[in-house]
Design brief:
Mean pLDDT: 89
CATH superfamily: Glutaredoxin
CATH topology: Glutaredoxin
Structural class: alpha/beta
Order of helices and strands: HEEEHEHEHEEH
Number of strands: 7
Radius of gyration: 14 Å
Largest sheet: 7 strands, mixed
């Protein structure tokens, strides 16, 4: 049910197209959340928390806001790759590891991509919709959350550095 709401919210948020603080609280430590690699191996978002700044995007291949944000995300990753870890968490609504693999190969996405098969990561991070970005500082605390296809990712990352 929660994932269906994420899909609906994503479509309704398309008109907003702006960053906003929502979902997980600013200042909160990034929680553990069971996910999978695209090869089906168990993983956890906690493995990224507290080991340096990290940007996490909750996204889907079918999400128009995610596609709008993608060029900026890729450019920002190139610029900050030595300082910030980038992680994509693909939600499970109308998704499969095979679809995700094909999409990232076609679009040249090079950062870590995980699959939220059970919705536990979306729940742990209180994800309101796809194209939701969470930035954690080196201590693992949330310094930014944003939603939509137009977000100032560089300003968000600077909050973590």
């Amino acid at each position: 049910m929660r994932l269906a709401l994420i899909a609906i919210a994503s479509l309704s948020m398309a008109s907003l197209g702006r960053a906003q603080e929502s979902g997980i609280d600013i200042g909160k430590r990034g929680p553990a959340a069971a996910v999978q690699t695209l090869d089906g191996k168990d993983a956890d978002l906690s493995s990224y928390v507290g080991k340096g700044p990290v940007l996490i995007e909750f996204w889907a291949t079918w999400c128009p806001n995610c596609r709008e944000l993608e060029p900026d995300l890729i450019a920002t990753q190139r610029k900050y790759a030595a300082k910030v870890r980038f992680v994509g968490v693909a939600v499970s609504v109308n998704q499969s590891p095979a679809k995700i693999k094909a999409y990232i190969a076609k679009h040249g996405i090079r950062h870590d991509i995980l699959f939220d098969a059970t919705g536990k990561a979306a729940e742990a991070y209180d994800v309101p919709a796809t194209s939701y970005v969470v930035v954690l500082n080196a201590k693992g605390n949330v310094v930014y959350t944003g939603l939509g296809g137009k977000q100032d990712l560089e300003a968000a990352i600077k909050k973590a550095l």
